[in-house]
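Hello,

Our lab assistant flagged a job as stuck in the queue for most of the afternoon. It eventually completed. Since we weren't sure the result was trustworthy after the delay, we are filing this so someone can double-check. Below is the sequence as submitted and the structure that was eventually returned. Let us know if re-running is recommended.
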Amino acid sequence: MLKSRTKSKPKQKKLPKNMNIILLAVGVIIFAGIFLYNTYYSTNSSKGGVDLYVINDADCGVCDPTGVIVSLERYAISDLNPIILEPTDEKAQKMISELNITTLPAFVFDKSIENAENFTFLERYMDEGKDYYLLRTRGSMLLNREEIPNKVDLFVMSHCPFGTLAEDNLVSVLDVLKGLNYEIHFIASEYNGTIYSLHGPSEVQEDKMQSCIMKYYPSKTLDYLTCYNANYTNTNQSSICIQQLGLDQSKLDECVATEGKELLLNKMTLSNALNIASSPTLLINNKYLAVGLKSAEEMKQLICAQNPELEGCDKTIENSKPTPSGVC
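-- returned structure --
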């Protein structure tokens, strides 16, 4: 019988003793390279897709670009690549200058957007510059405008339910932030010498009355607003509040008839200059806009975000209640 012969296994070459260390070192180098590459390109260049340059100030407490970015991704560009730029960045400065950007956050595409699938749809919502496109949005931070600390301006329509609630909430805020300066402005328009407001002639008349009270009884203004807003749909509410506060009805009626229009036009000046059309709108420190109704605590937090040293910012407004969002 033939004996079966088993093939002998070839001898394996022994690896150098330090080969494991070499392989580990190579692995570390490769991993470090990949990490540095991804880190650099995640902040400084495109990840693929369509680049969107978001110019935003990290110190702006009311500047949140998230909503616009999400809407663009959902309805227009699924492979959007947002790149955040501070307004002091050299590239951002070029965009601001070329596109005449006046508010932040601003949303900018370079000309490669012309190759995007939905460019024809987006084009109608953008302004074109030499090298960039600017998405038409209203930002929350006003550029080239002097910042005035500890100041808030409230823009309202006197018969807007959201505006009257905002005035009430402002009263609660002023009770806590004692060092806060405030001013109330009206949203209306003038055409051929006549003033028009969204809620009709009665609103214009009340705007005039409140303008007169602000002039002749400034220390009673907030008390009047609190009283009037409690039942502003009542046509006799103004007279009721004037009587309760001990104000001179005849003097105020005369003011409305003789000075009311001029005083109201003055109270409309800033809202028209800034193209503010939504009641209520807050202007914080003469530079930061917040549109829509906020609770008293939310209003306080927005103001304190830009004025952290303001006395009272560490306090909570206990009677602050959730409010329905909305504008007129």
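-- support follow-up --
The delay was a queue issue, not a problem with the job. The result is valid. Residues 19-44 form the longest helix (26 residues). The chain has two domains: 50-142, 151-306.
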